[in-house]
Amino acid sequence: MARVISVEAERFPIAGTFTISRGSKTEAEVITCTIRDGDDRGRGECVPYKRYGETMEGVRDAIEAMRRQIEAGIGRIGLLDAMPAGAARNAIDCALWDLEAKIGGQPVAADICLVAPSPLETAYTLSLGEPEVMAAQARANAGRPLLKVKIGGDNDIARIRAVTEAAPDSRIILDANEGWTDDNIVENLAFAAEHGIALIEQPLAAGHDAILRHIAHPVPICADESVHEAKDLESLVGLYDAVNIKLDKSGGLTAALTLRDRARELGFGVMVGCMVGTSLAMAPAVLLAQDADFVDLDGPLLLARDRQPGLVYRGSLVSPPDRMLWG
């Protein structure tokens, strides 16, 4: 039977408000791509991201523009040439992985994981706010082993002090979302090192980070907005110590696997992260992250409601996906 594709825009409320240096939101807006082949169905979810010029309408249109090729049977490798990296390609690619697993009766994990996948310790993200507000968030989650703290403003030293004092036993990742400058980065890095920070994500704007090659890295620095595909990595050697791989940036699991392997070859640490989405978006990333140095796949924990069935979270441990969800 011929393939049939459907595309749906969905919204899931966030528990409260999620704030980073670029703004706040109260719901996760996602696009879900479903590809059917007879009785089998594969699904993929993506999160359009304004920072990269994406909109819900634009991503949906980009998927719809591929309808003829998808329904004619284009595969994941062909998709890499047919579409640019980004959220739209991610949704299609992950739907194709899921469909292949359903048709073939073999889980995706069997194809991409060296050993049977196991639960992973994920970071839990704290929104940007005033130091006292962030201290309260940290205190409420001080039992979690790994916290990711959104910063990126003029008062970050106070924020770092507040969260480290409120959660003294947690390892902490700072995510500046391009919010630091050449004028404050050296001081901020030194203060972060003094307070035991484990990793700092994207402190400077992508393309305006040359200073990283010439200053000390007392805390490892991880590229996020600066890296999308494997072809980006060569230029980041000497600037960054690690890279954050997100399926919505790489344009799907297929490209993300190549990105991960090339990053390892070049000596980068690997973090696997996410946008704020549901368990369907996290599921393939959980498999990708099986050997990652840092895992940040807490999207469903930030939602007021998730898909059902969803991933199983026990505290900060996220289990591999059940086949009813994905893969």
Question: How would you describe this structure in keywords?
Answer:
2 domains, TIM Barrel, Enolase-like, domain 1, alpha/beta, 327 residues, three-stranded antiparallel sheet
Given as residue ranges, the uncertain stretches (5+ residues, pLDDT < 50) are: none
Q: Can you tell me the CATH superfamily of the largest domain? A: Enolase-like C-terminal domain
Helical content stands at: 25-40%
What's the CATH first level of the largest domain?
A: Alpha Beta
Mean pLDDT: 96
- Main β-sheet: number of strands, strand sense, barrel status? 8 strands, parallel
Q: Write down the domain tally.
A: 2
CATH architecture descriptor of the largest domain: Alpha-Beta Barrel
By DSSP, the count of extended strands is 14
- Terminal CA distance reads 21 Å
Q: What sequence of helices (H) and strands (E) makes up the elements?
A: EEEHHHHHEEHEHEHEEEHHEHEEE
What global shape is seen?
Answer: globular
Number of helices: 11
- State the CATH topology of the largest domain: TIM Barrel
Binned strand content: 15-25%
Side-by-side strand order of the widest sheet: 5-6-7-8-9-10-11-12
Helix/strand structural class:
alpha/beta
Q: Compute the CA-based radius of gyration.
A: 19 Å
Please summarize what this structure is.
The chain has eleven helices and 14 strands. By secondary structure, the protein is α/β, with parallel strands linked by helices.
